[in-house]
Each structure stands twice: as structure tokens, then as C-alpha cells.
Design goal:
This protein has helices at 2-15, 20-34, 41-50, 57-70, 73-85, 91-107, 110-127, 133-143, 153-162, 166-172, 174-191, 206-231, 237-255, 261-294, 297-308, 312-327, 332-349, 354-368, 376-385, 393-412, 415-423. The chain is mostly helical. Helix 6 packs antiparallel against helix 7, helix 9 (153-162) crosses helix 17 and helix 15 packs across helix 17. The longest helix has 34 residues, at 261-294. The protein starts with a helix and ends in a 5-residue tail after the last helix.
């Protein structure tokens, strides 16, 4: 009965378009009442669930992403990528993926990446003959790379749930993020194979490329400073997020001079609201997860999953299916808090590295960001392109297939994710 109350009420509220945090909180509260737990435990769980040093990186990365957007870094990255590959056949599609990967290494957020690069790249692709639907689908899909390539808010949340090193997760996500980006690019190339209306961009001279590089240099240095500092042991991921904020302010105010003092109020307010939303979800999800663990529901569900098969690959396939379905309705932060108490014992039982699992489970959630009916990136991309979501549902299918193929590749070949952390000594 407790399972029905927790999950039944939660999904009912989600289907009724009640915000995720409120749905989690109400379902958890009803679970506490049914289980005869005192409601007085809620403040303590909320505090312990959110008062973690690791999670302090979240508001800083959100603020850094907002600063970078206002600083005009995204448009400079687009100009540089366009100068390098924009003249090739399908070059603008490559530009979208490349810029998404770079901006992902700045913002750590899927919707933020779409909102940053979409207003420039979608109109440019429409003008080049791609139509509106494919550019919106490609930008939405590529934006989802924002939670795969480090720094990633999803990795921070996963690490707080599993005690995996955030730095090692960041390292493990680099190659998989690039592979997913390549998969999305190939899907776009296949979709446009018969489009005769596409117009190639004029080839830039070496001087123009150098000018574009110099203009984008400070933006290109952002992921180098953030990730380089972490991997060199200069600062922790949380400290790196603070450094990213300071660096972004210096670049935006004094170098690019795009950020004015009057903009700071809007930047901080937008970041505060986004951070509060995320932390509210984490707090409510922590209460939900506490009930699952305390009531032994998580253990029972773990045993149920393990009883289905003793084949490691079958169980990994089942876990991916669970998270793909969850990704259709939940954001990564909620899904991790709700499902990891159930899944982590299963992963340990079949001897799967939690570091490796953090990568492929995050990819599941990235695919969910472009999967109807929720697919938040689809809504952001369609809003930028000014088209209904229903119009790009067909165009998103090749990207879903490409993402799932990449997901299975990265799930069943763990060395792809673990190669870099092992090479630099983060794991044995």
C-alpha cells in the first residue's frame, strides 16, 4: 500500500501538471502519514538532504551559466565554430553540436544550453534552407548534452546520492558526451540527406578565422579553467563553480563589456530562482527517498529487479528501460533521488561501477529531455523557433534512436567511460 501511495499519488500529480517538487512533497507527506511517521522529521531530512558541500556547486554553476549567457560568450563560440566548419556541407549542423558541447562545459544545464544557442543558430539554419523543425529538434537534442559533458548539475546530484567523486564523474563524462554529440550530428546528416534546399555558408579566410578565434578565446578558456583546475587538483568541483562565477564576471564586465551593472540584478535574480527550484526538488526528493529506505521499500524493489534475471546484461537493459521511462516524466535530480536507493544495491550486486553507472544513467535522463510528453528541451527549442511541440515530434525520432544507440554502446562497454579517469589516476 505504501508503494501505491508514494508512486501512485506522485505520478497522478505529475500527470495533473502539478510541479515536480510539490508532487514529491505531497506524496512524501502522505507516505509519512500512512506509515505513522511523525511529520516533525521533515525539517531534519530537508536540511540533511540539501546541506551538503557537494551540492553547493549547483547554485554556483547555475549562476556561472547565466553570467556566461549575458556575457555574449555563446554568440562568440557560434561565430568561431561557424568560421571553422560552417562552409562544409551540413556545416551548420556541426556548428550546433560543437557549440552545444562547449556551452555544456560552461552551463551544466540542458535547457540553458538550448536557450543560449537557439536564438542564434535556429534562425541561421532556417535561412540556410533547413526549415524550422529540424533546427529546433537538433538544438533541443544537442542541448541535452549539457548534462552529460562536465561540469554537470546532474553529476553533482548523483555524486551526493552515491558518494562517488564528482571530479571522477566529470572526467568520465567527457568522452561519452562527445560520442552522443557525434551520434546526434550523424542523425541530422541522415535526416537531411535528400534536402536539396540547403545552402552552404561562404568559406571564411584564415584571417577571419583568426579574428573569430581571438574574439572567442576567453569563452573557450572557461571550460579549460574549470576542468583543468579540477583535474590538476588546484580546487574542488564546488570551488571550481565559484571560480567560474568570478571568471565569468571578469570576462563579461571588463573584457567583452557585455554585462552592465544594471544587468547584475537580473542575473542574480534569475539564478536565485533557478537554484531555489532545484534545491526545493532535491529537498522534497530527499524526504521521498528517506521513506523508501526506512520502509524497506527500496530493498524490496531491489530484490524484485534482481529476481527477474541473473544475467548482468539483462538487468542493465532493464535499468536503462526504467530510467528512459522515468526520463519522460522526471528531471534528472528527482529521478536520481527517487530511483537510486532502489538501483544502487542492484548495481552493486551485479558488480557494475557506480562511476560508470553515473554516466549512462545521466545519458538516460538526457534522452528524456527530448522525449515527449515532458521533454523540457523540446519546449525550450520550440519556444525559440516559435513552433508547436507537435510539429517536431517526427523530427526528434532520429535523434532519439541515435541517443539510444549511443546509450547502449556506453552501457555495455564501460571502458569508454572509465578510460580517462583511470588514465589520470582517479580510479584504479
Amino acid at each position: 500500500m505504501m508503494i501505491l501511495i508514494l508512486f501512485g499519488l506522485f505520478f497522478l500529480l505529475v500527470f495533473l501538471n502539478v510541479p515536480i517538487a510539490v508532487s514529491l512533497g505531497l506524496a512524501a507527506s502522505m507516505g509519512l502519514i500512512y506509515g505513522q511517521f511523525p511529520l516533525s522529521v521533515i525539517p531534519g531530512i530537508l536540511y540533511s538532504g540539501t546541506a551538503k558541500f557537494t551540492l553547493l556547486a549547483i547554485p554556483f554553476f547555475i549562476l556561472a551559466g547565466s553570467i556566461m549567457e549575458y556575457a555574449g560568450i555563446s554568440k562568440r563560440l557560434i561565430s568561431f565554430a561557424n568560421a571553422c566548419v560552417g562552409h562544409r556541407k551540413g556545416g551548420l549542423m556541426a556548428v550546433v553540436v560543437i557549440v552545444a558541447c562547449f556551452f555544456a562545459a560552461i552551463s551544466g544545464s540542458g535547457p540553458a544550453t538550448v536557450a543560449a544557442i537557439g536564438p542564434v543558430l535556429i534562425p541561421a539554419m532556417v535561412k540556410a534552407g533547413y526549415g524550422k523543425n529540424l533546427p529546433a529538434a537538433l538544438v533541443s537534442a544537442s542541448g541535452a548534452i549539457g548534462i552529460i559533458i562536465p561540469p554537470s548539475i546532474a553529476y553533482v546530484v548523483y555524486a551526493s546520492c552515491t558518494d562517488v567523486s564528482v571530479g571522477a564523474l566529470f572526467t568520465a563524462g567527457i568522452i561519452p558526451g562527445i560520442i552522443v554529440g557525434v551520434a546526434y550530428y550523424l542523425a541530422a546528416v541522415w535526416d537531411t540527406r535528400n534536402n536539396k534546399e540547403i545552402v552552404s555558408q561562404p568559406k571564411m579566410s584564415s584571417k577571419d578565422r583568426w579574428t573569430a578565434f581571438k574574439d572567442a578565446f576567453w569563452g573557450l578558456m572557461t571550460p579549460v579553467i574549470i576542468l583543468g583546475g579540477i583535474y590538476a587538483g588546484v580546487f574542488t568541483p564546488t570551488e571550481a563553480a565559484g571560480i567560474a562565477v568570478i571568471y565569468g564576471l571578469i570576462v563579461g564586465i571588463f573584457i567583452y563589456r557585455e554585462i552592465k551593472l544594471k544587468d547584475l540584478y537580473h542575473i542574480f535574480m534569475e539564478s536565485a530562482v533557478s537554484s531555489a527550484t532545484v534545491m526545493f526538488i532535491i529537498g522534497a526528493a530527499a524526504v521521498f527517498a528517506w521513506i523508501l529506505t526506512t520502509s524497506q521499500i527500496a530493498s524490496q524493489l531491489s530484490q524484485m529487479v534482481l529476481s527477474i534475471s541473473d544475467n548482468r546484461y539483462v538487468i542493465l537493459l532493464l535499468i536503462n528501460i526504467i530510467f528512459l521511462i522515468a526520463g519522460c516524466f522526471l528531471d534528472a535530480n528527482s529521478a536520481f533521488y527517487i530511483l537510486l536507493p532502489i538501483i544502487v544495491p542492484v548495481l552493486n550486486a551485479i558488480d557494475v561501477s557506480l562511476l560508470h553507472a553515473g554516466v549512462f544513467l545521466t545519458i538516460n535522463m538526457a534522452i528524456g529531455m527530448i522525449t515527449p510528453p515532458v521533454g523540457i528541451n523540446l519546449y525550450v527549442g520550440c519556444n525559440v523557433a516559435d513552433i508547436p511541440v507537435a510539429e517536431i515530434c517526427k523530427k526528434i525520432i532520429p535523434f532519439l534512436i541515435a541517443g539510444i544507440v549511443a546509450l547502449f554502446l556506453l552501457t555495455f562497454i564501460p571502458e569508454i567511460s572509465l578510460f580517462l579517469p583511470r588514465m589520470i589516476g582517479q580510479i584504479k
